[in-house]
Specification:
heterodimer; A: mainly beta; 6-stranded mixed sheet; 5-stranded antiparallel sheet; globular; B: mainly beta; 4-stranded antiparallel sheet; 0% helix; 62% strand
Chain lengths: 115, 114
């Protein structure tokens, strides 16, 4: 069975500081990994995804994530936080070569950005 | 924008009443999903559809039914709403690229059951 753990339900950073949102997964087969962002009163938007190949994945809005198989992690980072990054972020995992109905979402991490 | 709309966007209803939420897509995607979002639980799959009249249960399907009579519409029905079904409901479609299915979400429906 697969699962996703996001460490920290809330993370607070200062504007301009590094953003690090942690995601660890468990999966019995090679996974596909996703990060989504949700702004208030909106649906989830895809930030980035890892399928195969390069383990460092770049997404929209300056975010990137690195797949580390040995650590079963897919942490999301951004070098310099902006006020507009304040939102909730969800990590998700889907087993290799299965449909979206197998996608499991983490509980989410709310990012606060202080001026 | 994956061309997904949901209606209504907000609804308040009373315990025991039936409720139907609608998801409409404009791009002819085969797979459609209904999720509920609750604090501390992320998104949990209620039902999904893999074609017209083809549906299956997800993780939290009890108390919900779905129907898909046209490719573009996927309906979620609460037969007799309960307070535990107060939640935000999201519809999604998935797009296949290579071996990956990536999901795209609608704007959500906030349902309150009093």
């Amino acid at each position: 069975a697969q699962s996703v753990t996001q460490l920290g339900s809330h993370v607070s950073v200062s504007e301009g500081a590094l953003v690090l949102l942690r995601c660890n997964y468990s999966s019995s087969v090679p996974p596909y990994l996703f990060w989504y962002v949700q702004y208030p009163n909106q649906g989830l938007q895809l930030l980035l995804k890892y399928t195969t190949g390069a383990t460092l994945v770049k997404g929209i809005n300056g975010f990137e994530a690195e797949f580390k198989k040995s650590e079963t992690s897919f942490h999301l980072t951004k070098p310099s936080a902006h006020m507009s990054d304040a939102a909730e972020y969800f990590c998700a995992v889907s087993p290799f070569d299965t449909g979206g109905f197998k996608t499991i979402f983490g509980a989410g991490t709310r990012l606060f950005v202080k001026a | 924008d994956a061309g997904i709309t949901q209606s209504p966007r907000h609804k308040v209803t009373e315990t025991g009443t039936p409720v139907t939420l609608r998801c409409h897509q404009t791009e002819n995607h085969r797979y459609m999903y209904w999720y509920r979002q609750d604090p501390g639980h992320g998104l949990r799959l209620i039902h999904y559809s893999y074609g017209v009249k083809d549906t299956d249960k997800g993780e939290v399907s009890d108390g919900y039914s779905v129907s898909r009579s046209k490719t573009e519409d996927f309906l979620l029905t609460l037969e007799s709403a309960t307070s535990s079904q107060t939640s935000v409901y999201f519809c999604a479609i998935s797009v296949t690229s290579g071996a990956t299915d990536t999901q795209y979400f609608g704007p959500g429906t906030r349902l309150t059951v009093l």
